[in-house]
Amino acid sequence: MLETAAVPGPGRTAPDTQGIPESGSGPPSGDVFRGLATLTPLQVLRFLGSGPRGLVEARADERLARFGENTLPASRSVSWPRRVAGGLRDPFTTVLLCLGLVSAAVASWGTACVILVLVAVSCVLRAGGERRAEQSMAALRELVATTATVLRRTDEQAQPLAREVPVDLLVPGDVIRLGPGDLVPADVRLLRANGLTVHQAALTGESAPVPKYPVDAPEDPCTDLLGQPQLCFQGSSVASGNASAVVVATGARTRFAAAHSDTGRQRERTGFDRSVHGISWILIRFMLLTPPLVLMANAALRGRGLETLPFAVAVAVGLTPEMLPVIITTVQARGAALLARAGVIVKRLPALHDLGAVDVLCLDKTGTLTQDRPVVEHSLDARGRPDPQVLTWAAANAWWTLQLADLPVPDVLDEAILDAAQTCDIDLMEYEGVAALPFDPVRRLATAVVRRPARLGVHTLVVKGAVEDVLERCVLEEAERDRLLALAAREAESGLRVIAVARAERPARLGAYGVKDERGLTFSGFVTLRDALAPTAADALGALAHRGVAVKILTGDHPGTAARVCRELGLDAGEVVTAARLDALSERELADLAGRSTVFARCTPAHKARIVAALRARGHTTGFFGDGVNDLPALHAADVGICPRDAVDVARESADVVLAEKDLTAIDQAITAGRGSSGNIATYLRITLSSNLGNVIAMLGAGLLLPFLPMLPVQVLAQNLCFDAAQLAFAYDRPDPATLRRPTVLKPRAFLRFITGFGLLNAATDLATFAVLALALHETTAADGEAAFHAGWFTENLLTQALVMLLLRSGRRTAERGAPGPVRLAATALAAIGVLLPLTPLGPWLGMAALPPVYYLLLGLVLVLYAAGLAVARARYDKRHADA
Fold first, then answer.
1. Do 162 and 127 fall within a single domain?
2. Of all residues in the chain, what percent are helix, strand and coil, respectively (each to 5)?
3. Do 780 and 756 belong to one domain?
């Protein structure tokens, strides 16, 4: 961008191109751009070393080498080793690595190898999922524009030639031409314009096209740069009209790139990350305390020394949910793959679970709840009564302005009027066009002159445009004009756009018509238009409400327009909060207001981000759906950022989830998938931690009561391997439909209560098994009794874990009605291994012996009582959870 000191004031001599700084000096300064906005077009051209005829090719090539290509800063791809190493940041992965090293240090090589394999599998799976998401995003990246019409000269004396060049070859000082449908390829200052209107929704969120026209200096230099009529910015598009402009900033110096530079900042930890980390560190404290406690207790009560260290490490490993990183990564990768088939790309795998926890979804109405086009609501006469003739005059104006004013395409309002005329079977052929004055953003009118067969020698001027400007040209008394303005204001407050229509009879003539003829008009009436609703918006909002997701509308549009859209969709808008009110609130007051209110209008990008942050501070997990540069701060502030595939590049790169279509139904599908994945993770954690805690409590107690180790380290390892392998089924389980109807939140305190209660029940079952073993093995020798005890407890542990898998999983009722699912099959296999393994030749090698038949009879009774206790406790837990 340009140096502030180099910007000349009025009357000063502009510097040559040396005033343009070297490439890489950073994003443009608002002060510099504001300084340029105060210059005349000629001064800007002189400052840039250019002119109305454009740049010489040699100078353009020199600037291209100096400034670089007009492209956004490329996002750096993370290498495969760095992706794999990034998985080590997970706290459980780090603890597992430490336990693996300790196991290796005490020569427990089997434990060490298994732990290292689990860590490697988890890191590779996570890296692979993120790599696939990045490849999908690379396929979606598109240039802001492909080519631009540029005036270039071969030398100083040559005539300029207009030709198409790739936009990445544009440089400051290039003179370009813009027409309807063109994307603005850089930040430009207008030199000339004819009826130019620009869509800036990607930058400001405004749904209506904004008039743009050259001025020598703005009436209010303090106006926001995006509101300056003589400036157009990369990321906007031409709705109607044509213009020539000079390029002021390209590449990394555009406002587009300035927003892009924010995408690299560190994202705040999201709800899912916080929950998992909270649970992880609580367990890690227990794990770190367990080995020294086991060592000290055995040394004090049994006189055992470091020989119990492998057992102590095995106990710590037994408390660890070793498969958590693998299960989480597998569930995330599987959920992301299923969503990818539906056209939803999950760029950041943990975002899938953040989606499941979302209870507030913030979005803009433009293009999401509504389509990017208006439709005619009704036509009214001067008394506010329906009058179809007003629509007829408006359609005649739109049709003949399009035919005679050399406009390539109608603007969106004219399209809406012509569509309504076609629907009402209005015959426009009875009006013969004579002349037309196209819409001018300064006078804000469009005029068509028509001749009607029944009125020979008379021409009718039909004028439509902004209410104030049309009424100013009508013959009206002051009181009548005020009444009509009030009528139009009431329509606007109800969320409608209002266009005034007037006409005048003039004697037929051959000469041209001009602006001076737009006087002495007779007022005809109003045409009101509303935003067309998205076809799926109402159903999608209903589905989101059914899933417990509150929707907040954050828009830059008029409050009345936003409220009307909400009413039409059945969304309770309540009191519409404007941005002006937000500025006067403290953070705490804003959090309270954001929790109560649904619609926020006239929002700037900073307002949107502040509202999202306030909702998060209130304890909500927030999602934000946006597609423009103006949405970037809010995309960063939300727990999970969502955008459609056709969003601007910087929004796609900032978002966590990219949808194939701009459709709320796709968001509902993504939230459902996220809740399914989160439900499986939560089920895995509940089952694993409660079972592991019960086993560890029983193991510690038995270690102090028995004259031998209750389980050998190799047996603990074998038991963990079997249980861990069976738990992989949770990655493919089908959650209970009730899980999908509410946000999934991992709350550490609730988890601790759950695992403590069910863990104590499991420990009681283990202690009852000790009594059964003592009764069944009372006649055996000490050596045989120790091996049989190990076998009996091994069998009981795997059987109780199989019962826990079946009775505590969330989707059990659904699965039991159909064919056996993965969890039932895994639990059956786990139970079979628990019964049969001690009886195989592998049993003695693991230090286990065959058990007498009476043990299995007594164990069966214990397991029946344990299953009944689990069922009762689970029913009470479900009831309390439902009441809460």
1. no
2. 55, 15, 30
3. yes
From 83-97, 223-237, 541-555, 648-662, the region with the lowest mean pLDDT: 83-97
Residue 638 located in a structural domain:
no
Distant-in-sequence, close-in-space partners of 364: CB < 8 Å, separation ≥ 6: 205, 553, 554, 555, 556, 625, 626, 631
Residues 25, 159 within the same domain: yes
Element (H, E) at 715: helix 713-727
Q: Which tokens belong to 35?
A: 């300084």
Residue 794 corresponds to which tokens in the numbers above? 């091994």
Three state DSSP letters for 511-551: CCCCHHHCCCEEEEEEEEEEEEECCCHHHHHHHHHHCCCEE
Distance CA(529)–CA(379), nearest Å, equals 9
- Both 742 and 841 in a single domain? yes
Structure confidence by residue, pLDDT tens digits, 787-808: 888 888 889 889 998 998 888 8
Mean pLDDT of 458-478: 92
Q: What tokens appear for 220 in the block?
A: 């209010």
In terms of domains, do 410 and 301 share one?
no
Residue type, position 441, single letter:
P
Digit-coded pLDDT (tens) for 538-585: 888 888 888 889 999 988 877 888 888 888 888 887 788 888 888 888
| DSSP per-residue string spanning 599-639 | EEES--HHHHHHHHHHHHHTT--EEEE--SGGGHHHHHHSS
Q: Which of 221, 249, 277 is the last residue of a domain?
A: 249
DSSP conformation letters of 88-122: GGSHHHHHHHHHHHHHHHTT-HHHHHHHHHHHHHH
Domain annotation covers residue 730 = yes
Distance from C-alpha of 471 to C-alpha of 485, rounded to nearest angstrom:
8
**Full residue range of the structural domain in which residue 198 is found:** 4-74+143-249
CA distance 115 to 112: 5
Which tens digit of pLDDT belongs to each residue from 63-117? 998 888 887 665 555 666 777 776 676 666 776 677 677 667 766 676 677 677 7
Same domain assignment for residues 116 and 152: no
Give the CATH number for residue 24: 2.70.150.10
Q: Which of 241, 257, 136, 258 is nearest to 179 (CA)?
A: 241
Q: Which of 249, 284, 314 is the last residue of a domain?
A: 249
Amino acid of residue 544? L
> At 103, phi and psi to the nearest 5?
-60, -40
Quickly tell me which residue has 């495969």 as its tokens.
80
Return the CATH number at 472. 3.40.1110.10
Distance CA 620, CA 624 (A): 12
- Report field, pTM of the whole predicted structure over 0.85: no
Is 875 in the same domain as 832?
A: yes
User: Are 315 and 433 within one domain?
Assistant: no
Helix, strand, or coil here: 861? helix
CB count in 10 Å sphere of residue 155: 8
At 546, list the tokens: 């059914």
Q: How many domains does the chain have?
A: 3
How many Å is the Cα radius of gyration of the chain?
36
Cα–Cα distance, 209 to 202 (Å, whole number): 11
As a whole number of angstroms, the distance between CA 747 and CA 521 comes to: 69
Tell me if residue 186 falls in helix, strand or coil.
Answer: coil
Query: Which residues form the catalytic set?
Result: 364
CATH of the domain at 782: 1.20.1110.10
What is the per-residue pLDDT for 302?
61
